[in-house]
Each structure stands twice: as structure tokens, then as C-alpha cells.
Design goal:
It contains five helices and eight strands, in the order ββαααβββαβαββ. The chain has helices at about 25-35, 35-40, 55-65, 115-125, 140-150; strands at about 10-15, 20, 70-75, 85-90, 95-105, 130-135, 155-160, 165-175. Helix 1 (about 25-35) crosses helix 3 (about 55-65).
Length: about 180
């Protein structure tokens, strides 16, 4: 029997789910959802099609003690839901700041899940940040609404490279002061 190692990352409880560190057992559902082009196209880092081994490498990086990003599974088992509904992360930046990233499975789009997960992460502030940032593609107004709903303020336009789209895409950048 091989047990998962506990990593130094808190579990954050919410009403419909818990945010918990990734486990190796999450790889199947992560890959299932990340293979969906609708999910991949709204992220900067998920390629489409998803190459073999990409999910395993992603989970290994997320579980590494020297990681620069904490990734949480949105786990609905506490409310009799599925073990993985999506992911949310904080990438560490300098000056006590972090960048939020998230995606939810299409089955849970327009259910308030992303807003609830982001709000739980903001309230917990597990990295004890002064500020959180986020950027969304300008053709993803639903994610922009999630940020605004959770108190993020628009900073300006920028652009980011999307691996799935293989091009630079216009973005809207947001921030939220926590202190």
C-alpha cells in the first residue's frame, strides 16, 4: 500500500465543499475535465489536446514541498457530491502577494461554485497575503463576474499567452486588497 504524503497546505471548509490539497487519486478527474477544450481554452496553462503525462506532472508539481503555487481541489464529498469539481490555486508573488487561478468543470458552470470557492480562499487567506491578483481572458465574462462578485477590482487590460489557443489573448486584470 502506498499512502499520499501530507503537504504543508491547509484544508479550507465551505458549505458545499472543502478546498484540499491535491491527491494522486485526483488525476483521473483532473485529466477528464482538463481534456475538455472549453476548460483548456479559458486557462493560460492547460494544453489542448492534453499530452500524455501532463496531469501526472501537474499533480507532482502541486504536491512538491518547494512549489511556487498552492493548488486546491474543490471537493464536494462533504455535501454528498463528487470528489473533484474543479481547482483553485494561489501562485506566490513577491511583496506578500499572490495570483489566483481557477477552473470548474462545465457541469458546475453558472452554479455559483467558482464564486464560493474564491470567496472561501479569500476569507481564509492561507498565504497571509496583502493582495491577491487575477487575470481572465476578455472572452470569459463569467470569470470576470466571479472576481467582481468576490470584491476584486478592475486594474486594466493586458494579455497572456494561452497554450490551448497557441496565441496571446487579451485579458482583464483584477486585484483585491486583503489588508
Amino acid at each position: 500500500m502506498k499512502l499520499d504524503t501530507i503537504i504543508n497546505q491547509p484544508v479550507i471548509e465551505a458549505d458545499r465543499f472543502v478546498l484540499r490539497p491535491l491527491r494522486r487519486s485526483d488525476m483521473g478527474l483532473i485529466e477528464h475535465y482538463a481534456c475538455d477544450e472549453r476548460v483548456a481554452r479559458m486557462t493560460t496553462s492547460i494544453p489542448h489536446p492534453l499530452p500524455p503525462g501532463a496531469t501526472e506532472a501537474f499533480v507532482a508539481r502541486a504536491r512538491d514541498e518547494d512549489r511556487d503555487e498552492d493548488v486546491w481541489a474543490i471537493d464536494g464529498t462533504n455535501a454528498q457530491g463528487p470528489e473533484l469539481k474543479g481547482l483553485i490555486s494561489l501562485r506566490k508573488l513577491d511583496r506578500n502577494q499572490s495570483e489566483v487561478g481557477y477552473w470548474v468543470a462545465p457541469l458546475y458552470w453558472n452554479t455559483g461554485l467558482a464564486s464560493e470557492a474564491l470567496q472561501a480562499l479569500v476569507e481564509a487567506n492561507p498565504l497571509n497575503n496583502d493582495t491577491m491578483f487575477a487575470a481572465v481572458f476578455q472572452d470569459n465574462s463569467a470569470s470576470a463576474r466571479v472576481l467582481i462578485h468576490c470584491g476584486f477590482e478592475y486594474l486594466g487590460d493586458a494579455e497572456s499567452f494561452s497554450v490551448a489557443r497557441n496565441t496571446t489573448v487579451p485579458t482583464w486584470t483584477y486585484s483585491r486588497k486583503l489588508r
